[in-house]
Structure formats: structure tokens, C-alpha cells
Fold:
Amino acid sequence: MPETHIDNRGLYGKFNVQRTDGRDAPGQKHHGCRYFVMDLDHDPYAIAAIRAYAVACRPTHPQLAADLDAVTNARVGQENK
Structure:
């Protein structure tokens, strides 16, 4: 059987995420929620994904969208140096 390259595994559990507000504890609203982590420094698709999320959330969460814009703009600025 050929060895599977790490980049061909698809979606899998790579990180353990814990909320800082404790709301992921048993009995709390976010217990058992699934999270998706992106590496903004190395993942070539992360900036586009964050930008799309900023567009989608802008009508209801304008500050979050602005913060995401700032993060992605800063990252792209670093790449252009």
C-alpha cells in the first residue's frame, strides 16, 4: 500500500482547542463544538479564507471583520517586503 503524503489526508483532528472563557466545559453552550484552525503564516489558503469570513460576517460583526482585515492586510504586507 503506498504511503499517504501528509498533505493528502483531508480534514483530521490536528489541534486541541480550548476556549479561554471556559464555555467549552461540560454543560456549557460550546461543549463539544468543532473548531477549524488555520496557520496564517504558512497555509497558502488561509488569507483567502479569512478574507471571505470577514466579508461574510461584516454585516453583523463589523469590528470582527475590521480586525480580520487588519490581520490579513498586515500578513500580505509582510509578504511584499
